[in-house]
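ARCHIVE CARD
CATEGORY: sequence design from structure
SOURCE FIELD: tokenized fold
FIELD CONTENT:
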């Protein structure tokens, strides 16, 4: 859904084809890089992601055919093609794909990849944290809490937390001097029975 504000987040609800196309390690990395760092060429993306330009170009075309990335015609010159993310956020509910075993498997892979990326990013931060300022070491962190709630309240909680993230993303913030890109992950799922 497109929002009226030019700075508003552009959302896409992934259809069956899009979720199957996105379920690929390089494609997820390409889409993530374009969303976080902005438009780039296949060559620049290949260098950034430590892969080859041919593979990068191929997978960008696959993402474009699915409507997840688009060429940025204002930046391209001659044979140099610039790409941009077509949306800021991909949305889906796992039950959207209950009738499609391939899309269901793609969603499971995507969710597993998100968990792997979260763990990798957290480990990188923890390795670098001792060399960071006290302000960043105190501001960054993790926490958890076990709640006893039903699925409707869990959905409401997730929606409310998401709106907080969107508000922070869209707010104009005065120059903070030491501002950085920060990864924020939301995850909530029922505990495995018999486990703490």
């Amino acid at each position: 859904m497109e929002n009226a504000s030019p700075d508003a987040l552009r959302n896409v609800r992934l259809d069956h084809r899009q979720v199957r196309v996105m379920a690929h390690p390089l494609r997820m990395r390409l889409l993530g890089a374009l969303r976080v760092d902005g438009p780039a060429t296949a060559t620049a993306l290949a260098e950034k992601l430590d892969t080859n330009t041919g593979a990068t170009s191929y997978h960008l075309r696959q993402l474009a055919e699915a409507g997840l990335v688009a060429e940025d015609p204002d930046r391209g010159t001659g044979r140099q093609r610039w790409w941009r993310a077509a949306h800021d956020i991909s949305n889906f509910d796992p039950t959207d794909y209950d009738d499609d075993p391939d899309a269901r498997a793609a969603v499971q892979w995507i969710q597993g990849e998100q968990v792997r990326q979260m763990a990798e990013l957290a480990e990188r931060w923890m390795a670098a944290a001792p060399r960071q300022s006290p302000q960043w070491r105190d501001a960054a962190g993790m926490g958890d809490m076990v709640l006893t709630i039903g699925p409707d309240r869990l959905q409401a909680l997730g929606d409310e937390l998401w709106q907080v993230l969107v508000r922070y993303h869209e707010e104009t913030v005065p120059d903070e001097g030491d501002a950085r890109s920060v990864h924020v992950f939301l995850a909530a799922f029922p505990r495995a029975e018999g486990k703490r």
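CARD ANNOTATION: Residues 1-6 have pLDDT under 50 and may be disordered. The radius of gyration is 19 Å.
SHELF: design records, drawer C
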